[in-house]
Design goal:
Two copies of one chain form a homodimer.
Chain A (H helix, E strand, L loop, with lengths): L2 H7 L13 H12 L10 E6 L2 H10 L5 H4 L2 E7 L14 H19 L3 E5 L4 H8 L6 E9 L13 H4 E3 L4
Antiparallel strand pairs in A: 1-2, 2-4, 3-4
Helix pairs in contact in A: 1-5, 2-5, 3-6
Chain lengths: 172, 172
């Protein structure tokens, strides 16, 4: 699928069919994630692919009751080490968050081409997620991602116009 | 261009031809950026497209002497408001960094399809960038992105194997 079409068609899917994600499709979207760039090519990440029903049920609670986390056949948990990332350069730059977000974005767009849906999950209790999956103390959880076949056509959300979000050469 | 091909072909470009980015191609990559998802669809971002040679020269210094920042015909500065983002949910989640990273990733992949190169810039002095471009106090600079025609074929960086970065159902 054309890249621009994938970007246009990607929507947040919060209703999933129970069908599992075929192994070949899962391998394709995980490979797209793996190929992502990261600051100084540090690849300071690790991704937990959760398919176990009991674990997903526990993650529903950790994600503040979001039911689709339990319905999605796959939940990818994006983790990483701040110590292994490019480093904070001062200011607002946060290498680890940016790195893991890029990798998960690659997954979302490739999923569209594979006929799969995804949803970014930012509402979660990090400590609880870590406890459920046995994630070590020094590892951060950056974001979770639901993955599976959409059960319904998701709603398209409106976006601001280019004029609202882009300026040229200076802020004003 | 196919999404998976774009992901495979994207490389960090640090040598640029002086040719300007054609208006139509610039509009295409900016549109891909604009269409990105963000927490609660807040779109808490603003992007400054810098093409002025004098400003880019100043940005070289702000980016700790990285010469290609001045050579690239376009530098996109990814900014945002933490107050307008989905919010920190506690833990490590940082909505604004993730949102802006997704948008800039859309730009990088679409650029490949347009025959353009990009490079993520994480090494910059935020306060200096803000001063150069007149960015308000309350706005954060998340990352900068160089954009233009590659002058040379960039080096492909090796990536870890899937086995190294993905685990199933639990950390261990």
């Amino acid at each position: 699928m054309d890249i621009h079409q994938a970007i246009k068609e990607r929507k947040s899917v919060r209703r999933y069919r129970p069908d599992p994600v075929p192994a070949e499709k899962l391998a394709t979207v995980l490979d797209a994630m793996r190929l992502a760039p990261s600051g100084r090519n540090a690849q300071p990440w690790k991704f937990i692919v959760v398919r176990d029903a009991g674990l997903k049920e526990k993650l529903v609670e950790a994600c503040n009751g979001q039911r689709f986390v339990g319905e999605a056949p796959v939940v990818v948990v994006g983790c990483g080490w701040e110590q292994r990332a490019y480093s904070k350069m001062g200011g607002y730059w946060n290498s680890l968050s940016v790195d893991v977000a890029i990798a998960l974005d690659h997954l979302t767009l490739t999923a569209v081409a594979e006929g799969l849906g995804t949803c970014w999950i930012g509402s979660f209790k990090e400590d609880t997620v870590k406890e459920i999956l046995g994630i070590p103390q020094e590892v951060k959880v950056i974001a979770l991602m639901a993955l599976g076949y959409p059960a319904v056509e998701p709603e398209a959300k409106p976006r601001k116009s280019l004029e609202e979000v882009v300026v040229f050469d200076s802020w004003d």
